[in-house]
User: Fold this.
Amino acid sequence: MGFFEKLKQGLSKTASSISSVFTASELDDEFYDDLEESLIVSDLGMDTTEAVMDRLRQTAREQHIKTVDEAKLALRGILADMLNVGDPALKLDTKPSVILVIGVNGVGKTTTIGKLAHQLRDQGKKVLLCAGDTFRAAAADQLEIWSERAHCDIIRQHEGADPASVVFDAIAAAKARGSDVIICDTAGRLHNKQNLMNELNKISRILDRELPGASKEVLLVLDGTTGQNGLLQAKQFQECAGVTGIVLTKLDGTAKGGVVIAVAQALHIPVKFIGVGEQIDDLMPFDARSFAEALI
Assistant:
């Protein structure tokens, strides 16, 4: 199954809901009301849905759109445009570059790191994993399993160690081994935001001191099934860590996926990858037009 087919399968629940609206015979108030309801149910949220509907009505007037099929094409274009809020490519211009992977527990951070490491190795980069989530039992063990699958080195310490000290060790190892990219796992604790902010700030200070001028990506992993809670998570992590990109995971047919449109609009953070399965090569670079086409 190709990428677009996996994406369509992953968004099938939402696509089916929205597609049913486009069986209408004309662009009347009932059509617009039904479409608005389907977008809200698809996790775009009220504010983003209202913005989408305003743009669709304006486009319909300006382009003299008369048919439901024309409206569908216009809606695809609007959603793709709303998702284009920044460069979806990773910026890894220095040696080493750093990728911090953040997000609440259970969203698939460790799996994402393993898949990303595999992808970067396939591009010829030497990757070093850093087990910075020292608070969750077995987090480092899980990351080590992925390091073996992706054929990457890993730096870890004992459970409960200071995450910043693990990052410090990883930087020293990366310099000694000539690594191209360090991918750091981090703890996913939002229930105490101040502790999380302090921890991420400490890690950032270590990176700035030990690798001044290094390229740094901060990727927030969001579970595609979490709905509007994902927008709340994104806002809080943006305050804590300065997120540079979103990874949307668990597009397995139950996900709605619309939350990334809300995040893109509210925070202007680009989606950089989507997870469309459990296999090591099931992390795909994000393409806004393909995503909109699979959604609509």
About this structure: The chain has twelve helices and eight strands. The mean pLDDT is 88.
